[in-house]
Write a structure and sequence with these properties.
36% strand, 8 strands, alpha/beta, three-stranded mixed beta sheet
Length: 123
């Protein structure tokens, strides 16, 4: 896993952040991109208002990198975080779980002070 420093694409300025993508999650992202036959997509994580606790994660593939976006590479997978979401995600870890009970991406975020019973939103 190549864990490079998160930087803004338009400059060489180093941005202090700690968003991580585990090896398992990076492998799953690469597998999904290969299935789609796309090499122009990145995994984007964002925090938006919503859910019963006030904030909700958005995790999706995006072909765009916008001004102010922060891009971090994990091997051949790029993780994109927008400038407004980054403070909420500093120190967060994205993993992929594949068990009989659950399959999907999980986010362990030390900045979340609490979450709702469904686990989809936080504050």
């Amino acid at each position: 896993m190549s864990d490079t420093t998160l930087t803004a694409p338009q400059t060489d300025e180093v941005v202090p952040t700690g968003v991580k993508l585990t090896d398992t999650a990076a492998t799953k992202v690469r597998s999904l991109l290969d299935q789609e036959g796309r090499d122009d997509l990145r995994l984007r994580i964002a925090v938006q208002p919503g859910g019963c606790s006030g904030l909700i994660y958005q995790l999706y593939f995006d072909e765009r990198v916008l001004d102010g976006d922060l891009v971090k590479e994990f091997g051949d997978v790029e993780l994109v975080v927008d400038k407004m979401s980054e403070p909420y995600l500093d120190g967060a870890s994205i993993d992929f779980e594949d068990t009989i009970q659950k399959q999907g991406f999980t986010i362990d975020n030390p900045n979340a002070q609490g979450s709702c019973a469904c686990g989809d939103s936080f504050h």
